[in-house]
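Private note to self, pasted from the team thread so I don't lose it. Backbone tokens:
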């Protein structure tokens, strides 16, 4: 059995944020409460500050686990699994909303985010099964059933042609992080850090009133390359360094696939971090921008301007959009890194 191992992209920084908030002391001293769990095939944690936040944390965790059950592509009892049997299926309003969002984002990104890519993802062994390199013929056959325009959503009814399958893998965690944030806020939490396998949502500010400090992981090594200072927003990173395998010939294949070729993305980007108000937008975009490559991603930002991003590229340089440049700082060990500003 293949055991997937996920390491939170920003674990080190999360610990730092939690530590700093406790170290200010005085009358504002707040206690951090944390819940950790495994869902959506990854490690998750939610940290909240203040009195009596434990109950809210439990509710947020329940919410994420509920969505996982509904949206898992491999769980026979999930709504997505039922839809993937082909034909017509009625889904809950929440699942219909997620599918509608994925279709919108697929359209917006010109199919770089491709919610029907599952048969191809599966053939490479990224969701269940063993990693392998499928033949060109096999990929071409599978690509015949790929294309978001094949999905029909009418109200809460989804219709899929035989062989077409939906996968929420690139968006579900981001969507769930927004829902978790909503649950925390509804239950009185004013300050929290949600980390669903690297999908971050920052609720409010740190208890001391300062911005959270979130590390952007070094795609080539362990530590972080830089720190983002932010509050009240979502931050999501996609990169090929997290889930990948090395084939017999030494080629490393990552888990984000270019829907045009059916092969893992191999372009000029190592990782892309997206900062925006909603986790679901960040999650959908980080995957899609990674597929687009540096120039395509920059162009997408210029067209939409509803997000900011930090791209770490194979040339060893960082490319950051102008709206985040003052909030991103290279870490000491990467002080030599060239940071290019993408202008509108
Ligand atoms: P992670 O889930 O590791 O945080 P992403 O959000 O980038 O990373 O999503 C990657 C997952 O989405 C893959 O594991 C796969 O299930 C699926 N996927 C891969 N390529 C694409 C794509 N181009 N469009 C949509 N989903 C994809
Ligand atoms: Mg994503």
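Design output:
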């Amino acid at each position: 059995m293949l055991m997937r191992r996920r390491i939170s992209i920003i674990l080190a920084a999360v610990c730092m944020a939690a530590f700093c908030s406790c170290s200010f002391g005085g009358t504002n001293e707040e206690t951090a409460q944390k819940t950790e769990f495994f869902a959506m095939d990854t490690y998750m944690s939610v940290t909240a500050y203040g009195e009596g936040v434990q109950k809210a944390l439990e509710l947020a965790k329940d919410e994420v686990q509920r969505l996982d059950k509904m949206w898992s592509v491999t769980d026979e009892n999930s709504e997505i699994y039922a839809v993937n049997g082909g034909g017509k299926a009625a889904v809950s309003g929440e699942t219909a909303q997620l599918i509608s969002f994925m279709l919108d984002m697929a359209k917006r990104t010109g199919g770089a985010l491709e919610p029907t890519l599952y048969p191809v993802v599966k053939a490479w062994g990224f969701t269940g099964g063993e990693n392998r390199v499928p033949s060109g013929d096999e990929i071409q056959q599978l690509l015949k059933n790929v294309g978001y325009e094949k999905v029909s959503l009418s109200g809460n009814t989804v219709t899929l042609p035989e062989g077409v399958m939906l996968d929420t893998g690139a968006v579900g965690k981001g969507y769930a992080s927004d829902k978790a944030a909503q649950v925390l806020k509804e239950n009185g939490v004013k300050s929290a850090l949600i980390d669903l396998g690297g999908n971050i949502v920052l609720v409010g500010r740190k208890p001391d009133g300062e911005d959270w400090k979130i590390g952007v992981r070094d795609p080539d090594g362990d530590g972080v390359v830089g720190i983002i200072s932010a509050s009240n927003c979502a931050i999501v990173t996609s990169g090929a360094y997290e889930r990948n395998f090395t084939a017999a010939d030494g080629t490393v294949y990552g888990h984000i696939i270019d829907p045009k070729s059916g092969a893992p993305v191999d372009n000029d980007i190592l990782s892309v971090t997206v900062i925006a108000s909603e986790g679901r937008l960040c999650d959908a975009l980080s995957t899609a921008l990674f597929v687009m490559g540096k120039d395509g991603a920059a162009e997408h930002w210029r067209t939409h301007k509803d997000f900011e991003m930090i791209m770490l590229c194979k040339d060893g340089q960082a490319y950051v959009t102008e709206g985040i440049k003052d909030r991103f700082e290279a870490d000491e060990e990467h002080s030599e890194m060239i940071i290019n500003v993408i202008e509108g």
